Amino acid sequence: MKKENEIETGEWNRLVKDAYNSLEFLVTMHYLRKYLPETGKILDAGGGPGRYALEFCRAGYDVVLLDIDPTYITFAEEKIKLEPKSVSNRLIASVVGDVRNLSRFNTNEFDAVLCLGGPLTHISDETERIQAISELVRVAKPGAIVCIAVVGYLAMLRTVLSRVSHELITPRYWELIKEGQGNNLVRDSLWHFFRASELQHLAESCGLITLEMVGCEGLSTGLPEATNTVAEDPAKWERWVELVLETATEPALVDMAAHILYIGQVS
Fold first, then answer.
1. Domains of the chain
2. Phi-psi region of 188 (alpha: psi -120 to 50; beta: other; left: phi over 0)
3. What is the pLDDT of residues 17-65, one digit of tens each?
4. How far apart are CA 267 and CA 56, in angstroms?
5. Contact, 259 vs 29, CB < 8 A?
6. Alpha-carbon 174 to chain mean position
7. How far apart are the first and last CA of the chain?
8. What SS3 state is found at 98?
9. What is the pLDDT of residues 150-171, one digit of tens each?
10. pTM for this structure?
11. What whole-number distance in Å separates Cα of residue 144 and Cα of residue 36?
12. Interatomic CA distance for residues 249 and 142, integer angstroms
């Protein structure tokens, strides 16, 4: 029960806990709707407690949810069971698994493949990141859309400044931040933070054609208080969201964003 409660108050609520955090979900969904096929079978790889999976079940897609944490899978199943049968039956499988090894799935099996929220950021080894993206591409049909979201390196540095500036003078952290090619310790786990160009190069090296890159928090990146204040006025919030969506693909905003969304197509 404790673990389930942690999920409910953590990752499940992360995308809706306030206006600032909701931008990641809102902007991601805006661009996914632009590129995904109208119907089909979607793999939500590293989908955590299933917020995106649920959204696509509601939209009429057949969804396979995969995550490395069995507690997340159980949580997602219970959430989606609460939906009408027309929605819950769209979750055709939920499996415990690792994005680095999708061997349980056939080559060219899915009409679209998603890896959202930042699962690749939790893979510190470059060879394993290449393996993960190669697997995402392998299970997608020719011409299918593959969408990958990661946590941005520059946004991480801004977080260091605002929250943990002592890391700047701690040798172990400084070596990772400055020399570790985007790696840093987060809650005693080694994470990898991306530059936009690195993500694009990695995706293209694995066989994807780049269609779009998006800074999910866009103009609001690093400004949670101001964003949440604007959201208190619905008229202002509508205008601000319009601006965020219109500028989210500006290269400078993509590279500075807390979450960088890559949208590619299998060649």
1. 2-152+194-266 (3.40.50.150), 153-189 (no CATH)
2. left
3. 999 999 999 999 999 999 999 999 999 999 999 999 999 999 999 999 9
4. 24
5. no
6. 26
7. 45
8. strand
9. 999 999 999 989 988 998 998 8
10. 0.93
11. 8
12. 25
